[in-house]
Amino acid sequence: MGIADTLTARFDVEQHGSDLRTELVAGLTTFLAMSYIIVVNPAILSEAIRIEGYGQGEVFQMIAIATILSAAIATAVMALYANRPFGLAPGLGLNAFFAYTVVIALEIPWQTALAAVFVEGILFMALTAVGAREYVIRLFPEPVKRSVGAGIGLFLLFIGFQELQIVVPDEATLVTLGGVFGNPWAILGLVGLVLTFVLWARNVTGAIVIGIVTTSIAGWGLTFAGLFERGVVTPESLPSAQYDITPLAGAFVDGLADVEPLTFALVVFTFFFVDFFDTAGTLIGVSQFGDFLDDEGDLPEMDKPLMADAVGTTAGAMLGTSTVTTFIESSTGVEEGGRTGLTALVVALLFLASLAVIPLVAAIPAYASFIALIVVGVMMLQGLVEVDWDDPAWAVSAGLTVTVMPFAYSIADGLAAGIIAYPIIKVAIGELDDVRLGQYLIAALLVVYYVLQTRGVIL
């Protein structure tokens, strides 16, 4: 039996309606879509992490290595243990909270913040092992589970439009159409987006990968031809690899040694809350898109991908990075046909390979990477057809889930809005018996959390 046959058998590829080539392409697609995190995560965290005797550029490289290793570990667990095509890495939003709120604003040492992430990961591992996380997620109302994919799609669209500078900030209306055709960045992104949509519409395998690579090559070609200076449509400089991360890895131990109990508990709780609902929303949304959900809208054996997420968070904190979570960009690989852990294994191996070619990975302009978000965002809107819009409880719950995500810039907040709305409308129309006790309890706890959070009582 050859390597190909061994891999196909190990991941039950044929039983999942896929094949080796499709899984490989899907893994490459997911990696390219989420590879920006290798640069973006250290760019954010290096604002807060300062290591004596090392410059910010050196710290940047340490965090980049920690980012790659934590992503590879978590995604490998997803592949080999859960057999799901999901990629994991340090999450956007959570890293910004880590850097700008916890370390910079609250002046909590970065080592202590890493300790909070480590504790969060341990808690998640324990709760996942006893089935508590899966139980809570199964309590999510069905309209929320059926609409979360479309909500994530709109969120992806919003992020993609901003990154391509097609949509820009506006003082009067918050956002508005940017000066697209006066902006080389936006023009290249838009041309790449059109190319990718055309390829996808013609059922070209690897359409998203081709779009990303072609757009990147176009940007570099125009730069080398002298039409633009470095830094306009290509990165201004490419970092060299910094492989010694010993000053960063293990720093969480020092953080555990000196904590203020109340503040530390609040930081842990906030990381815990946002990661719990972000992960739940991503898993359900991507699973809905890949047709992995059962008739009740649940992901079979959900405890396994949840455990991969928990292991990744714990390992990431030990290595020196913020919370690791399942990436919504996994949808790109699922769209390419990825259905098994072989897709995730390819992602993990490509992350490891990027240790040797960090400058090459960093050479992909952001506008090329974010093309994938817009393409997949449009595709994920198909989940809206699964919502019973004639049922008031479904309409309100699903409608809020879908719209709050992009408007609040948070998967967690969108889920919470739908979860809270469902029992309220059910009671209003006299169908309170349709709501389970656990659903009332989760809604009540979320109300308490948001009252305290929006009043500034908790982080």
From TrEMBL:
Xref: InterPro entries: Azg-like (IPR045018), Azg-like_bact_archaea (IPR026033), NCS2 (IPR006043)
Pfam family for this entry, one: Xan_ur_permease
Membrane topology note: Multi-pass membrane protein
Localization terms from the record: Cell membrane
One GO cellular component term: plasma membrane
Keyword Phosphoprotein: no
Domain of life: Archaea
Keywords linked to the UniProt accession: Cell membrane, Membrane, Transmembrane, Transmembrane helix, Transport
Molecular function GO terms recorded: purine nucleobase transmembrane transporter activity
Main location, first listed in the record: membrane
Family that this chain belongs to: Belongs to the nucleobase:cation symporter-2 (NCS2) (TC 2.A.40) family. Azg-like subfamily.
Protein name: Putative MFS transporter, AGZA family, xanthine/uracil permease
